[in-house]
Structures are given as C-alpha cells and as structure tokens.
C-alpha cells in the first residue's frame, strides 16, 4: 500500500460540515459528488497530498445514516492508495482479511475501491483506492 489517500468522516449535514471544514482546513471544498448506489453525498477537501472526504447519508437506509445512528458523527474510514487493486485484494484475502467487495467497485472521485471488514482491522474500516 502507498500513502493514505483520504480519510472519510461521517457527518449528519454537509450543509453544516462543508463550511466547518473550509474554516478548519482553510481551503475550499473542491468537489461534491452523489453516490446513488450508497445513498450518500460526498464532499472533498485537499490537504497537502491527502484528502478529506465528508460523507452524508441522504436516506435512513444509507450505511452512513446507520453508522451515525449507532456511533454518532466522526471518523468513518481510512483509504490507502494502491497501484493494482485486484492484486492487493488477492494479497489481503490470502492473508485472511475479509473483503466487503468481491470485485473493485466504482467509488467517488473517479476511483476503483474495495473495503475491508473492520472486524479484521481493529475496528477501523479500511478502503483501498486505485486510479482508473
Ligand atoms: Zn472513502
């Protein structure tokens, strides 16, 4: 794995959190994107070589809405950049990690992604990210 590509933070309302993070990071949100498959709205910030991804569920059925209901707003996942996502998925699966996606799926920001089950990673949801 390479650098941390982004950190994902679950928020209740992007309309509140975008201005908050703009103030915090002193940089504008450069992109918002709707992930219809996940019922999630996302907003991205660049901080040096890394990014912050804010995630808001727009339906109670969204995994983000369920996460916030259970655990409140806060750190949701850490994403690591990989060169070859299929090779990395195979390596991690062979090491005994549970992949939440059988195949790389379309993520926000024009990326291919795969999540690892947090039960194998000390409770931290890990995302693999590769450029398309
Ligand atoms: Zn992410």
What is the C-alpha radius of gyration, as a whole number of Å?
A: 14 Å
Total strand count, please? Answer: 8
**What would the average pLDDT be, to the nearest integer?**
96
Q: Which strand-content bin applies to the residues?
A: 35-45%
The coarse overall form would be globular
What is the terminal-to-terminal distance? 16 Å
**What oligomeric assembly is this protein in?**
single chain
Read across the widest sheet, the strand sequence of neighbours is 2-3-4-1-5-8-7-6
| Low-pLDDT regions | none
Largest sheet: 8 strands, mixed
Can you list the ligands bound to this structure?
A: zinc ion
Order of helices and strands: EHEEEHEHEEE
Provide the structure class.
alpha+beta
Contiguous helical run count? 3
Q: What is the share of helical residues?
A: 10-25%
């Amino acid at each position: 794995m390479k650098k941390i590509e982004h950190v994902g933070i679950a928020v209740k309302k992007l309309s509140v959190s975008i201005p908050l993070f703009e103030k915090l990071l002193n940089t504008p949100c450069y992109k918002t994107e709707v992930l219809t498959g996940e019922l999630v709205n996302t907003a991205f910030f660049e901080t040096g070589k890394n990014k912050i991804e804010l995630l808001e569920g727009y339906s109670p059925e969204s995994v983000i809405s369920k996460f916030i209901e259970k655990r409140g707003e806060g750190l949701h996942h850490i994403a690591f950049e990989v060169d070859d996502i299929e090779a990395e998925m195979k390596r991690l699966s062979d090491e005994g990690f549970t992949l939440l996606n059988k195949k790389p799926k379309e993520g926000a920001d024009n990326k291919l992604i795969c999540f690892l089950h947090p039960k194998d990673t000390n409770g931290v949801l890990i995302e693999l990210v590769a450029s398309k």
